[in-house]
């Protein structure tokens, strides 16, 4: 099927570019609450499923043993901007396990956020693995392995116990069979598995409702989701969409982006979760889409709904600050 | 009509994202040589039409009066990376007209290219208008105005003589009627006009063939196109697609990108020009598309065709340098 246009990018009075996509909203039972486009298509969740990948850190008892609070758990589920507080906390997590950044297998990159990159360029020769947006997730893997008495070396590979455990967790949460056939390699070198979009949404709905989960997993899931909602800065960073979405409705919205236009989100009080993908992989469109879909679950004219609607209709300004157009998720805002 | 998928972005063995688009290839008479998608749809050419916008600089006699060679003309048709050589040459152009950067109305921004941005962050407090990717084009506007005895102040506005002249030039080249109805504001604050994609291609085919143009315009057009092909670094910069495309076949390929997934190109010896747009505005897809379409006009297994095909099938590597996928314009490479 051809996915519908969900976001228009306008210039003056005309549409300049269009973004297609698919959206699945489900409850804890997996019942479809809302959908658009081909939700049975498989998508790589990329970083949008980091909260699932953080479960071994909690379920193994490592998080308790190392005294991790909300900030550490949020960072373990983060795609952070590499701001000093992010890198420092990732290093502190590794130190609790008696390790340092040399154990990290994620590679290094400059921040994707221009203001952070400029500060990095002025303050360091080059970024380290601690500045990689995935360093918190990798620190979580290392901590889970070390606490369990497993050698963390090679923790990013398909056959390492930590990745095998994550594969099993993601199979049970999403209902999809995962293996080499639907496996790709993520930017940070760990496996990423293509799963049906609807199953991805169901996985997050299970995490926020606990429906069908063993008590220990239900508790660990909510602990991670709640930690992200409590410390949204550590999930992304200054000015970032995930952080802003969770700040709009503190404790009421969970949101996590993934590369190539994926976004997962949940409204725990409504018992629903959202998974969406912009067909072409555009972050700007996925951000507008998720804000628009979330806005449907908040009452009209509330600050939450107003804030979400504003993110779903973002003005574009040029280098002189002139308003030249907008990124507009109009198709999703209609109630 | 629904535009076809022209570029796949793969991860492992699976397609992760898809880019749709439209492509028009025409000759000097405007006859269609090749097309895909809705080529009658209007698109904002954005920076892809800078060679057209540089015509007043040459036709007014300003370029000769100020002694501009290929580098200056290439810069006047450039979206450059803000490297020191670009900013220095833009300043030199303005100095020939007795002006400096304070006359520029384009606004300032950091380089879009990470290595350049890092050097800028380390060497300057903030970028100036000379570092704006459009500074050469704006310097050309200022020089054309000054040489003609027109006050350059307000040269970026719709009603200034320089923009009115450009509007007329673009109407005659593309065959489209331009006015407030199809006008938007570009990133650098000048008007940009939505024109049918096919007309945009025809405009460039006219420029490279001279078909239907007055002798003075035909000569000025080829002078600008030839200058870009002779000095590809000044059209874009280190590692950039326009520069690489023109370096693959020196003097045989003209190529110019525009924001939001537009690309214009020409193969003068074949008498054809290309205009294309990625529906969603993605640069990575437009670059793969234009390389693939250009490859169709070069003999199989030549260095030119091999180089273009490689750009149309770009490998994606992660932070550890692992090959994780590709940007693949397969639908356009089939002969």
Topology overview:
The structure is a homodimer of 335-residue chains.
Chain A: E1 5-11, E2 14-27, E3 32-36, E4 42-43, H1 50-53, H2 55-59, H3 62-65, H4 70-76, H5 84-96, H6 114-123, H7 135-147, H8 161-174, E5 183-185, E6 191-193, E7 195-196, H9 197-209, H10 215-230, H11 232-235, H12 241-248, E8 254-258, E9 262-267, E10 272-278, H13 283-295, H14 303-311, E11 313-317, E12 323-328, H15 330-333
Helix pairs in contact in A: 4-5, 4-7, 4-10, 5-7, 8-9, 9-10, 13-14
InterPro entries (chains A, B): Asparaginase_II
Protein name (chains A, B): Asparaginase
Detailed description of the structure:
With 335 residues, the first copy, chain A, is of the alpha+beta class. Chain A has one domain (5-333): 3-Layer(aba) Sandwich (Beta-lactamase), CATH 3.40.710. Chain A is 41% helix and 19% strand. Chain A contains 15 helices and 12 strands. In chain A, strands 1, 2, 3, 8, 9, 10, 11 and 12 form an 8-stranded antiparallel sheet that branches. Chain A has a two-stranded antiparallel ribbon with strand order 4-7. In chain A, strands 5-6 form a two-stranded antiparallel sheet. In chain A, strand 11 (313-317) and strand 12 form a beta hairpin. In chain A, helix 4 (70-76) packs across helix 10. The two termini of chain A are 23 Å apart. At the A-B interface, strand 2, strand 4, helix 6 and strand 5 of A face strand 2, strand 4, helix 6 and strand 5 of B. Chains A, B: Pfam families: Asparaginase_II. Chains A, B: This is Asparaginase. Chains A, B: It comes from Metarhizobium album. Chains A, B: InterPro entries: Asparaginase_II.
């Amino acid at each position: 099927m051809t996915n519908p246009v969900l976001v228009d990018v306008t210039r003056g009075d005309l549409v300049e570019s269009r973004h297609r996509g698919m959206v699945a909203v489900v409850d804890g039972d997996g019942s479809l609450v809302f959908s658009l486009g081909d939700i049975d298509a498989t998508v790589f969740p990329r970083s949008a499923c980091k909260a699932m990948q953080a479960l071994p850190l909690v379920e193994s008892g490592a998080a308790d043993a190392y005294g991790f609070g909300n900030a550490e758990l949020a960072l373990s589920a983060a795609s952070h901007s590499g701001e000093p507080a992010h890198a420092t906390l990732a290093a502190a997590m590794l130190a609790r396990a008696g390790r340092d950044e040399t154990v990290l297998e994620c590679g290094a990159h400059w921040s994707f956020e221009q203001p952070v990159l400029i500060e990095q360029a002025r303050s360091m020769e080059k970024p380290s693995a601690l500045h990689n947006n995935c360093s918190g997730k990798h620190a979580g893997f290392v901590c889970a392995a070390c606490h369990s008495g497993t050698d963390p070396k090679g923790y990013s590979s398909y056959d390492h116990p930590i990745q095998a455990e994550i594969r099993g967790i993601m199979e049970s949460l999403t209902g999809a069979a995962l293996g080499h056939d639907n496996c790709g390699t993520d930017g940070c070198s760990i496996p990423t598995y293509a799963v049906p979009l609807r199953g991805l949404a169901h996985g997050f709905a299970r995490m926020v409702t606990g429906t069908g989960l063993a008590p220990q997993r239900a508790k660990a899931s909510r602990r991670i989701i709640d930690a992200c909602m409590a410390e949204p800065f550590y999930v992304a960073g200054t000015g970032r969409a995930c952080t802003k979405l969770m700040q709009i409705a503190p404790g009421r919205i969970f949101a996590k982006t993934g590369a190539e236009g994926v976004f997962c989100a949940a409204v725990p009080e409504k018992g629903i979760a959202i998974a969406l993908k912009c067909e072409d992989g555009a972050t700007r469109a996925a951000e507008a889409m998720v804000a628009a879909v979330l806005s449907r679950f908040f009452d009209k004219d509330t600050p939450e709904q107003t804030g979400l609607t504003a993110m779903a209709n973002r003005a574009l300004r040029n280098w002189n600050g002139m308003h030249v157009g907008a990124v507009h998720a109009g198709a999703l805002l209609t109630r």
